[in-house]
Design goal:
The chain is mainly alpha-helical. It has one domain. It has helices at residues 2-26, 33-43, 53-60, 67-80, 108-119, 124-137, 147-177, 191-200, 216-231, 261-307; strands at residues 86-87, 91-92, 96-97, 183-184, 204-206, 212-214, 238-244, 249-255. The strands form four sheets. The chain has a two-stranded antiparallel sheet. It has a two-stranded parallel ribbon with strand order 3-4. The relative contact order is 0.15.
Length: 311
Amino acid sequence: MRLKLVIRPFAALLSLSAFVFPSAAQQAPSSSNAPTQEAQQQTAPPQPPAAGQQASEKKQEPAAPGATGQNSTTSQEKNTGTSNDRLFYTLPNFLTLETKKQLPPLTVGQKFAVVTRGSFDYVQYPWYGFLSLISQAENSEPGYGQGWEGFGKRYGAAFADGTIENYFTGAILPVVLRQDPRYYQLGQGGIWHRTFYAMSRNLITLSDSGHKQFNYSEVAGGAISAAISTYTYHPKSFISYRFNSATGMTTAVFNPSDRTLTNTAKVWGTQYGYDTLTLVVKEFWPDIRRGIANKRRQHHKGVTTVGSPSE
């Protein structure tokens, strides 16, 4: 069934969140270590650097990993109100902002531009191909058939499902209802507080004027996109024929259609849950990214210290 295809990314992101929460807690900067490190640095008397040595050290010091991407993201936020960020350095995360201040509202053109940029990002093409291969291997929605033709139909349907949902929730309804499709990261407080905040953003959003509103764009947009995809290009009911070698007879098999209100509601509910979990991952991703950058920086310093000649 088509529902399995929708559940897969939800399950994958759920597994990913099991890594996110412990990592966010472990990688938070510890204030108790700072005085100890400062004390260790102050035990040795300061020595004035040789002439030109300080300048050369500044030139040779490598940039912190992730710093370039962070500066690019910050600049993008200031200039266009969107970001260049990617979840786990891969998945487009252009509508997530790490600033706590509300930025000026996106124009109609900007809302459609950022959704287009994310929907047709280079990562999306292999991602939908991967989902289509699994769908074909399980022969979900058998009305598509097998072979290259069946794969092409599944690929097109998967791509259309995601793209239509992105446009309705991130551009079309936000333009019509004048709502802000961006996610503003909270970035402070306990894990559960930030988790509940992220989950609530699918129900509460900001208007273009900065007032809190019910998130019609997400709720209604997801329902509309689920209905469009279910009742248009997904397979109708059909009759197939199966040969029984034991009886030597061919029997007709009726394959029911997924074009039902019940299936539409299930697809919408699953997609809403997937979007909610995605917001939780977006909330904690900057913490994970900073932790990864710190570990890389510490590793680089350790390698430099060990590899440097002793005097």
